[in-house]
Write a structure and sequence with these properties.
By secondary structure, this protein is α/β, with parallel strands linked by helices. The protein contains nine helices and eleven strands. The strands form two sheets. It has a nine-stranded mixed sheet with strand order 1-3-6-7-2-8-11-9-10, with helices on both faces. A two-stranded antiparallel sheet has the order 4-5. α1 crosses α5 and α5 (202-216) packs antiparallel against α6 (223-241).
């Protein structure tokens, strides 16, 4: 397993926090991966290690991409999982970012590799970002819920105790590995409108960055995400207005959202259950096996 983790640098870090996001099942509307990628650019993060994809991916399911460099040379881009380090302005500690794609194979080995390297770096807290499909309108801020299984962490960060039961992704397996290794971990989930699930959601990314910034007690420059979120809302609104039934449905969601207070915001568990229901209904419509049940 040591050969599968390719370490480029072993920096001396001060009380680091690891923030992880994976493209795939845990990334509805690409909200989580957009947020993590934005933070990497904002903080000028430097790569310190990556994971060899050979043992963790089925390349028929997650295919490498071919691209041309300078219009001549063909280059293969393999599914990448990489660690980056950053020292955000205004923080008295370091951040390690883990950006990747949900692996197809050997989840337990993959999670042990991640948690093991986090231990070598002295990581004190692991935070995962996720985004899930839900019945929310695109015209309102994306609600974010946070959860943890550690009672002390729940109390200190004002989170919810995780009681979710059902299908899980690599994020759930990673949290289990953290618990077994005694590494505190928390999870933030942003809701994404299910009727625009294939459209990248800067609104969800914005909500996740703001929630993470609040937890880390730093001011994040999210102006770029805010502008992208406004443009996203305008584009989706134009598309929705072309269909009267969809527009009526969205207006109903807006009324319901405006009637909610903070205590009524769906929990991470409720959002996950909503995603499971959505996947099952979609598979039935497509005439496919119940994939959510089979996982």
């Amino acid at each position: 397993m040591a050969d599968e983790l390719r370490i480029h640098e072993r920096p001396a870090l001060e009380r680091p926090v690891l923030v992880a996001a994976f493209r795939g099942w845990n990334d509805g509307g690409q909200g989580a991966s957009l947020a993590a990628g934005y933070l990497a650019r904002l903080w000028d993060a430097e790569q310190i290690a990556d994971v060899d994809p050979e043992g963790f991916f089925d390349f028929q399911a997650t295919r490498p991409h071919v691209k041309l460099v300078d219009g001549l040379t063909r280059q293969i881009d393999w599914p990448e999982t990489a660690f980056y380090r950053a020292r955000p302005d205004g923080m008295d500690r370091d951040v390690v970012l883990l950006l990747g794609v949900e692996p197809n194979l050997r989840w337990r080995a993959f999670s042990e590799l991640v948690v093991g390297f986090a231990g070598e770096l002295g990581v004190e807290l692991v935070v995962t970002l996720g985004s899930l499909l839900a019945d929310i309108p695109h015209t309102r801020p994306s609600p974010v819920t946070g959860s943890a299984s550690d009672e002390e962490l729940v109390e200190r960060l004002g989170l919810q105790a995780s009681r979710y039961e059902g299908p899980t992704g690599i994020v759930g397996i990673l949290h289990d590995a953290c618990k077994r290794q005694g590494v505190p971990s928390a999870s933030f989930w942003a809701a994404v409108p299910h009727y625009v699930s294939l459209t990248p959601s800067p609104r969800a990314a914005l909500a996740l960055c703001e929630r993470l910034g609040s937890m880390l007690e730093i001011d994040l420059d999210v102006e770029e995400l805010s502008e992208a979120a406004d443009g996203y809302a305008e584009q989706v609104s134009r598309a929705v207005s072309a269909d009267s039934d969809t527009q009526a449905y969205v207006e109903d969601l807006e009324r319901r959202a405006d009637e909610l207070d903070e205590s009524d915001i769906p929990s991470g568990e409720a959002l996950a259950a909503e995603l499971t229901r959505f996947l099952r209904e979609r598979d039935r419509e497509d005439g496919e096996p119940d994939a959510a049940t089979e996982q």
